[in-house]
Design a protein that fits this description.
With about 575 residues, this protein is an alpha/beta fold. The protein has 3 domains: about 280 residues, Tubulin/FtsZ, GTPase domain (Rossmann fold), CATH 3.40.50.1440; about 150 residues, no CATH class; about 45 residues, no CATH class. About 30% of the residues lie in helices and about 15% in strands. A 6-stranded parallel β-sheet has the order 7-4-1-8-9-10, with helices on both faces. The chain has a 5-stranded mixed β-sheet with strand order 12-11-17-13-14, with helices on both faces. Strands 2-3 form a two-stranded antiparallel sheet. It is globular.
Length: about 575
Amino acid sequence: MAGGAREVLTLQLGHFAGFVGAHWWNQQDAALGRATDAKESPGELCPDVLYRTGRTLHGQDTYTPRLILMDLKGSLSSLKEEGGLYRDKQLDAAIAWQGKLTTHKEELCPKNPYLQDFLSAEGVLSSDGVWRVKSIPNGKGSPPLTTATTPKPLIPTEASIRVWSDFLRVHLHPRSICMIQKYNHDGEAGRLEAFGQGESVLKEPKYQEELEDRLHFYVEECDYLQGFQILCDLHDGFSGVGAKAAELLQDEYSGRGIITWGLLPGPYHRGEAQRNIYRLLNTAFGLVHLAAHSSLVCPLSLGGSLGLRPEPPVNFPYLHYDATLPFHCSAILATALDTVTVPYRLCSSPVSMVHLADMLSFCGKKVVTAGATIPFPLAPGQSLPDSLMQFGGATPWTPLSACGEPSGTRCFAQSVVLRGIDRACHTSQLTPGTPPPSSLHACTTGEEVLAQYLQQQQPRVMSSSHLLLTPYRVAPPYPHLFSSCSPQGMVLDGSPKGAAVESIPVFGALCSSSSLHQTLEALARDLTKLDLRRWASFMDAGVEHDDVAELLQELQSLAQCYHAGDSLVD
């Protein structure tokens, strides 16, 4: 591992986590492809934090995500469980048995046309069955193969996206994908629906040993492992898988950071009674158990509520999305996730996962909220102070943790990242002798502007801030969500003309907020209203009545940590 990177191992648990993860890894891949571009700011984010180098049996250098993902039978579509990068037909044919063989061949899923286009651009399958990669970004691996013309890439349509692998542009290591064969992705029967089912999966020796083997494979090759990030579905049985996985990590790798992102797709409807009750129970059990075994937990959702009462999805002024499409929702959440995780992925002066968690989780506040402004509204000719002053005293970001509007709530500690603003716009370019319209316009660096803005907004709050030149890439397969934006994500008057949006500035934050007091108490109130006798199927999956009583008590204790009077300063 070059450069002493502080490695992170990612766990993706669940199908919606797969959607968010696919956008996340596509973003990392897009950043790698731009690393040698003379126009780009070099070296702000270290890809080795998330990626590992390797080599196939045929001597091909590889650069793949340091990733373990778990999903259900039937969820991969045309993606093979072992991936496509290391495949070797000669090895597949090496069978020890010399007797008579009967072959049962399963019909292959048709590959998404978008991925066919991607694979033809990335490499070729030779006649001997070996995948030959054309190039590996960022100088990793052999020189690129060139062609006379570069075909324009296909853009996936919403109708063509059924599962997350339909738009994943990144090759995975054979040790990345772990399928839970006892439960089905499709159909009404054999579903992983309840927290107890998920916990029991990792209590089975087969799955527990498989996860441990993969963990040891990745961890043992790390020089400076800083920790683990878990992307975990909260709404279904994967909340139990995530809780058990976090417990295993805490037991085996004490002292390492464990940051868990609890993911919830949206929206939901009153008419789906059983699904809504299960979602409530899974979310409550997941949050409490994940908080017990993680350094930090952050729910991520575009919904307005974690409880039983449906609330409309959140709104972004310059972004139009369909809340019923996981492809859209996951893209937005991945944008926020890639931004708020910047501190522990920096090349220079990174903040470790443990330090970030310690700063935000004092006094037992291990659950935090997320928010983001996507895109950050900078118009042509404006400076950063101009744009920040437009927010006035309002919270600048849209809430992404289903905890309601942050207005009127109290922030105890926050980590803020602003990315993608050109250096020339960081400070106000006033004509000499012109009095500055605000104290922000008098600042001499962008970092000073951001720090002073946060101090003015939350004068008694512990704040950490980072300002990056690196924007967020929104090239295909990222969906077309932006209106009235230039190719670089600047806000324009009227309809945009010309090229599509390629990158955007993003303002993201993690916050320990008093809004969690109301949210967690509301969860507990909704649980007390349930007649558990009506939901025996959830209880039969491995949850006792005493477990629910204990859950209520722990939810209320956790909620009390966020009472507005509990702060570092008064």
